[in-house]
Write a structure and sequence with these properties.
mainly beta; 47% strand; two-stranded antiparallel sheet
Length: 101
């Protein structure tokens, strides 16, 4: 679960390494974002020659959050970072390739 001011990693190849969430698009009552939610982010770290500069705002889609999932057979899935995909328009990602599962 992600809150406002959470640092997240970007999972597409658009030249942005990290961003910070400052708005969650679910309504005024919801305080947390889960997988599949839209959020508004501020860019924090980018490549030096990138056209998206630090401080720019963008819409994003949450695709992975930190969690440990223990299964009945004894195996488990461990995800260590929160990932988002930056969007141009409705569901069009900024990058051409996505990383991760």
């Amino acid at each position: 679960m992600l809150q406002k001011s959470s640092l997240v990693s970007v999972s597409d190849k658009c030249g942005v390494w990290s961003a910070r969430i400052f708005c969650i698009y679910k309504g005024s009552r919801h305080k947390f974002a889960k997988v599949g939610d839209f959020v508004k982010v501020s860019i924090r770290k980018t490549k030096p020659e990138n056209w998206l500069k630090k401080g720019k705002k963008s819409k994003a889609f949450v695709i992975n959050t930190c969690f440990n999932n223990f299964k009945k057979d004894g195996s488990y899935i461990k995800i260590k970072r929160n990932f988002i995909v930056l969007l141009k328009k409705r569901m069009t990602p900024r990058g051409k390739e996505l990383f991760g599962p």
